[in-house]
Amino acid sequence: MKVTLTAVLVGIVLLCSTLSAQETDTGTIILDTSGFWRVHFTVKPPVVRKEQKVETLGFRAKWVMRGTPLPPEDWAKPDFDDSSWARFPGVCHVSPHYHFRSYKPPFMALECMRGKFTVTDPTRAGELTLSASYRGGIVVYINGREVARGHLPKGGGPGQLAVDYPFEKYDPKHPETKHRSLTDVKIPAGVLRKGVNILAIEVHRAAYHERDVKRGRKNRISINWGSCGLMNVRLKSPGGVGVVPNVARPNGLQVWNSNPMQVDCDLDYGDPNEELKPIYVVGTPNGAFSGKVMVGSPQPIKGLNAVMSDLKQIKGRGKVAASAVQVRYPKADWHQAGMSRRYMQFPSCFGGLKEFPPCRGESCGPKKRTVVVQADNISGRYSVLRRRSARLDYGDRPRRREAGGL
User: Fold this and answer.
1) Number of CB atoms found within 10 A of residue 88's CB
2) How far apart are CA 132 and CA 178, in angstroms?
3) Structural Rg of the chain based on CA atoms
4) In a 10 Å sphere around its CB, with 0-12 CB exposed, 13-18 middle and 19+ buried, how is residue 63 labelled?
């Protein structure tokens, strides 16, 4: 009886130029919808207000009626581990020419987002300002401390409903009619700290008007707009001093974690404010299981290679030979529907795998490592030493692919 473990090393040849921090007439943008955020969505059946009562609508889809869990109570705290959360660029930015429903379905109940930025000197950072556009109601936290609130009464916890919308027939050509906003909210300098800071945003749904609900054949329910979601956000510094913007790809070679279920694209990059964590591969006998790490750079990567050492049990003498781990590399060979609205252009997604890294020139060959793990290996947690090597090719001018965002 044998077990095969598969580790996937994703090496990306990114032909993207690095974007510098954006400067405006009123300051430097520190964080906005062009960067990457950690996101948690809570799904619940939509609710409708009838006179003074709030009723839950029934859907045939069982997964909607079951709903999904709320985030942990301490999710807005700076020391909360959000590495298991989904990681999206632009948060939930929506093209104004696209129907809002596909991004904010009516059963979206709560959106929680965490963005990160670095403060080098809190005494020089000055008074930051924040603006946001959203649907429903919003609460904004800096390092776990509430700094702003809009269209949302205090109290009630994560299930609190936002202030009702007055009924107005939704026009998908003008989705902005449902937008609400916070403008130039001043962030007290006292909430900032030296090092990585967390901007946490919590968006609550509003109850629908009973006239928003349409019933079709077989009593099927439809609502053509979503009452919960962040449209855009912008955190600015008056002088850009004492704080490091996080709105563009950093220079140099990057290595970052990615969930095996996450769709990765050639426009992705690692958040410089997130630490590189171990690759976790969880498996059982008689199966193949995967872990993943990403490699990227503004310049084409040349000579990418990865070598695995033996996996040694953290507490014990067990060992899995390095030859039991197969290293594979991705192919940017497909486009996922809807991705262009997230990135504001058409990215190439990594779908298939190959046994040699993406590289340039005839000298690039296979880098395959394969061995078998016996089923009688001692169960437990194992660690591995990963060695990576690569060099950047600055000989060719990279093709410019700018990322959009507010």
Assistant:
1) 17
2) 14
3) 24
4) exposed
Phi-psi group of 261: left, alpha or beta (phi > 0 → left; psi -120 to 50 → alpha; rest → beta): alpha
| Stretch (H or E) spanning 79 | none
**Which structural domains are found in the chain, ordered by start?**
2-16+249-392 (no CATH), 23-244 (2.60.120.260)
Beta bridge partners of 11: 295
What phi and psi, each to the nearest 5 degrees, are found at residue 11? Answer: -105, 120
Across all residues in the chain, what is the average pLDDT?
A: 78
Q: Where are the alpha helices (DSSP H) in 48-203?
A: 62-66, 122-125
* Tokens describing residue 305: 């290679």
Tell me the CB-side half-sphere exposure of residue 244, using CA atoms within 13 A: 19
Degrees to nearest 5, angle at CA 101 with 95 and 107: 135
pTM: 0.81
Residue 17 pLDDT greater than 80, yes or no: no
Unique residue bearing structure tokens 């990594």:
350
- Give the CB-side neighbour count of residue 404, counting CA atoms within 13 A: 14
- Give 347-361 pLDDT, tens digit per residue: 788 877 887 776 543
> What is the sign of the dihedral through the CA atoms of 154, 155, 158 and 160?
negative
Q: What's the half-sphere exposure (Cβ side, CA atoms, 13 Å) at 405?
A: 29
Instruction: Give the pLDDT confidence score for residue 51 in this predicted structure.
Output: 81
The pLDDT tens digits of the residues spanning 304-356 come to 777 778 888 878 888 888 888 888 888 777 776 666 666 767 778 887 788 77
Which residue bears the tokens 């095969």? Answer: 4
Residue 81, C-beta contacts closer than 8 angstroms, at least 6 positions apart = none
* pLDDT given for residue 366 in this prediction: 28
User: Are β-strands 208-209 and 47-50 bridged in parallel, bridged antiparallel, or unpaired?
Assistant: parallel
| Residue 88 and residue 343 in contact, taking contact as beta carbons nearer than 8 Å | no
| Residue 32 pLDDT level (bands cut at 50, 70, 90) | very high
